[in-house]
Design goal:
The structure holds two protein chains of two kinds. Chain A has nine helices and twelve strands. Chain A is α/β, with parallel strands linked by helices. Chain A has two domains: 7-230, 3-Layer(aba) Sandwich (Rossmann fold), CATH 3.40.50; 231-263, no CATH class. The chains are: A alpha/beta, B mainly alpha.
Chain lengths: 263, 344
Amino acid sequence: MDNKCILKINNVTSFLGNNKVLNNVSLDIKPGTLNGLIGVNGSGKTSLINTINGLIKPIQGSMNIDDLSLNYISDKDISKLIATVPQNPTNMFGFSCLDVVLMGRNPYIPTGGWPNSSDIDIAYKSMKSTGVDQFAKRTLNTLSGGEMQRVFIAKGLAQGTGILLLDEPIANLDISYQIQIMDILLSLVNERNFTIITSLHDINLASLYCDNLIVIDKGSIVKTGPPVAIIEKDFIQSIFGNRLNVIQNPEDNRSIIIPKSIN
Amino acid sequence: MQNLKLYKIYSLLIVILLITIVLSIGIGSVIIYPQDIFLALITLIPIFDYQSDISESLIVIINQIRLPRILLAGIVGFSIALSGATFQAIFKNPLADPYLIGAASGSALGATIVLMILGPVILIQISILPLASFLGGIIAVGITVMISFSSRSMSSNTLILSGIAVGALANAVTSLIIISSDPDVRPLLSWLLGSFNTANWDKVLIIIPYVLVSTILLFRYRRIMNIIQSSDSEAQLVGVEVNKTKYILIVISTLLTAIAVSVSGIIGFVGLVAPHAVRLLWGYDYKYLIPCSALLGSIILILADTIGRTILYPQELPVGVITAFIGAPFFIFLIIKGRSSFNG
């Protein structure tokens, strides 16, 4: 499958109720890249993700995938282009993992229809690429947090899109599961040419894995670029506060962020 | 494997339904044995052209009294249970029942107003009543939903509380109309309290097309009902037009309630008990929750009506009394059992 796609966002402003959550945001996402969205709580990471996927309709600006404008297409058509793993997906009580992943096939199944063998095939392939195919028949609520998150990523993959958005996919997970999820995202980009935008709290993991970091603050994008250009002491302190230090990892000279010592 | 199990469940319910029907035809002031019921039914079907030696009076009892009443109870139970299961799916609220969210009381008010205006013109009534009931029901549900949305707390109990309030108001207006009505018209309104004692073939035939169309439409939405059990935003992210779908489903399930109310009055709790029994027995997938609830609703209401007309014979208990005896304790059980999960 050819996943060649490019996401272009031009001067987008959007509101949530009366609050302006995105202020004149422009962004250019290259195909086949892993993009990390970082910023403090409430900076607009989730709002940016939900504006791209159509949950929040922008009041101004334009968004395009390749040359297709997203402003005027239906939710169903958007769901064939962009899949989203939301922050806390509903733990659907009583449904098997296969059932949940098959819900990702909805855009391709007519209202009165049921998944056919090709849908089931795609669901199994998606589960295989996140390593959860062995849980297909188990109910979702019997899985651990990390396993459940991989099922939700598989559901996103089953949508057959070229773009995958994830909102804090590794929040609430142990560090070993965080690395496991990030490895999966990396392999989707490298082996299947997915374009991924994921918000992340852990800036070090973000800079380790991502091709590109997008820093958002108070609804505006303040800087984008490769991690080496972002993880720089003065800039990081201006966003995340001056109690942080940037040091070099002796192993590979990578810049990493640690809290300053407590005196 | 999964499908094999489903067919077993469907077959089981259909067999129980048939046994219930035969049993209910047999029980009453005159006991009729299954072989006589079988022969009488064959006699009643013209294409068989069969003359049995069963007495004419037995055939009249079966054909004119018991069969239409049982079929009506069965179809009404089917409709209310279907309506309840769908309301529960739309509102993601396991306590949403056509009775508890005001749909049934609103429908009864709509029907009452039309009866008062038209007076005792029986034939016109039965063809126009379903529509009048539907209007009353959809207005009541609309008000219930608006109240629960405008209250800031998104607790699922708000819907039920506003439904109970709207229902109580509609019931009060209905009672007022009945009490202030012409004494000649009053008996015509007695069925609104929930009873099948005015059942006849006309009523059965009038509601069949509505129930059939609604059922076919609802069955098409079973997969989408599963998806909207996640959250509205998650459903939209996989391309479900959430609001449009909910409006369609609210209209269909209110119509089913209204149809039921227009021929049998307000019968509570079947829409709650049937889907929950299915959940307890076979799980949460609407693919089979919808058909199984409908079949179980049929069975429950036929049994309840049979108990109602026989237990204190020659007096008759309204079927709503029987369903309340079964349903109210079940409702309390659900509230206690689900305290932690419902208050979310």
